[in-house]
Design goal:
Elements: E1 2-4, E2 12-14, H1 21-33, H2 44-57, E3 67-73, E4 78-84, E5 87-94, H3 98-109, H4 113-122, H5 131-144
Antiparallel strand pairs: 1-2, 3-4, 4-5
C-alpha cells in the first residue's frame, strides 16, 4: 500500500507487512475448505479498515462528516474503531470476546461450554436469572451486610450500623 505523503511533495509512504508462510497457508486452506477462492489475504487491521471504507462510501454523501464505528467481536478480543472523513479517531482492543461470553452463559445457567456456545449462537438461552444464580446472589448479599437485602430489585441497598 502506498500513497502520496501529506507532508512532503514527492515522498511516498510505504507500508510493509510480513507474515509467516505457514500462517498464510493455514488461512488460505480454511477459506478453500469453506468453498471460497481467496484472491487476496490481508492483515486484520487493514482488512477491517478496507471494510469500513466500503461501508462509508455507501452512506449518504459518501459518509462526509459522519462518525462511523466498527465493532469486531472475536473469540478473545473485541475491537472498536471510530472514523470520521477517513481519519481514525479511536482504535482500541479489549480482552473480551465470544469465548468469555460463552463461559459466562455456561456459569450463569449451568450449561456445559458446548451447550452454552450453541445457545449463544442460537439466542436460545433463558432471559431471566436462574434459581441457582439467584440463591447464590442472595447468600452473598447476606454475608456482606448486617441487614438482609433484596435480590429482586436491580439496585441493592445495604444498611450499615454506625453504633
Amino acid at each position: 500500500m502506498s500513497s502520496a505523503s501529506p507532508t512532503s511533495v514527492g515522498d511516498v509512504e510505504v507500508l510493509i507487512a510480513a507474515s509467516r508462510k505457514d500462517r498464510v497457508q493455514d488461512r488460505q486452506g480454511l477459506a478453500e475448505a469453506a468453498g471460497l477462492k481467496p484472491m487476496v489475504l490481508d492483515i486484520e487491521s487493514h482488512a477491517s479498515r478496507l471494510a469500513m471504507s466500503r461501508i462509508i462510501k455507501a452512506l449518504p454523501n459518501e459518509g462526509k462528516d459522519a462518525l462511523v464505528a466498527l465493532f469486531e467481536i472475536g473469540a478473545d478480543t473485541t475491537s472498536l474503531k471510530v472514523l470520521r472523513d477517513d481519519e481514525m479517531l479511536y482504535d482500541r482492543d479489549q480482552a473480551f470476546g465470544g469465548a468469555q461470553l460463552t463461559q459466562l452463559i455456561s456459569r450463569q445457567y449451568g450449561f456445559s461450554f458446548e451447550e452454552a456456545e450453541l445457545k449463544k449462537l442460537g439466542g436460545d438461552y433463558p432471559r431471566t436469572t436462574s434459581r441457582r444464580s439467584s440463591a447464590r446472589s442472595s447468600t452473598a448479599c447476606h454475608r456482606r451486610s448486617a441487614v438482609p437485602c433484596s435480590t429482586s430489585s436491580p439496585a441493592r441497598r445495604t444498611t450499615r450500623s454506625t453504633t
